[in-house]
Amino acid sequence: MIYDDNPDNGFTILINHKDGKIQSVENTFQMDPSSLKKINSSNNSSQNVSEAFSQDVLNYSDGISKIMNTAFSATDYTEQPESLSEARSMTASWDGLLNDIENQADTDEEKRIVEQLQGFKNKRDEILDDIEQFVDNHDSEAWQNAQKKNVSLEDELKIFFDKYPN
What we know:
By secondary structure, the chain is mainly alpha-helical. α1 (about 35-45) runs parallel beside α5 (about 140-165), α3 (about 80-105) runs antiparallel to α4 (about 110-135) and α4 packs antiparallel against α5 (about 140-165). It is built from five helices and three strands, in the order βββααααα. It is globular. The model has no long low-confidence stretch (mean pLDDT about 85). The chain has one domain (about 30-165).
């Protein structure tokens, strides 16, 4: 469950539950309203999707996580350019999969899922751009923005994974 009734407070509350029992309550950075709407509409639909489509969707969303883990894998700032370069090189093959997913989308549910994946991709690219700003200009604010956006993206991907039918 997602609670976010105040768009000006800077945080979103996630409540994870299983079998009617609360597993955890998490306070995370504010998720943007369009992402929340897409998560809820995608997860509340019947999600009549093919098995091959589902597998590709889960694979792609996992790929975004792998790219972000690579981008943030540097142990210090001197290794950051190499981590960023490796993450950027990974995006081409993963985005090829997104193109395949988009071509497979036939139903309204599948098209909504593709939109959500596009949103994840856009956020990923924003984070990589922020990291690049940090690497090129030693912009600590860009680094902080990248970290903040990454936490939000991780949370959105976790919700997506937890709710996606597999």
